[in-house]
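User: Second chain of the day. Same drill as before.
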Amino acid sequence: MNITPLAEERINQTLDGSELLRIEVNGGGCNGFTVGLMKIAGQEENDIFLRSNVVIDPISEEYLLQATLDWKNDAFSETFHFDIPNTKSCGCGSSFQPEEN
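Assistant: Same format as last time:
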């Protein structure tokens, strides 16, 4: 998974020195899967470090292997944004489903 420099900067601003950012794919949303971000105090046994302060579990990593995490800062909202290739999303834009080959 790629994390843009802008997203990495925002992650570093958001976390204190001991916190980690967990990225995980969960079932739900109107299209099958959602991506969650949460601050955590420590990693779990099987976590994979994407950066020194960003972790992901192995199952979520498979869904997001080709994804890019970016920070969007426009006139209407500031937010983390995932670009996940080979997926389709519904109108809400907050859930995704892998495209079938």
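The mean pLDDT is 89.

User: Great, on to the next one.
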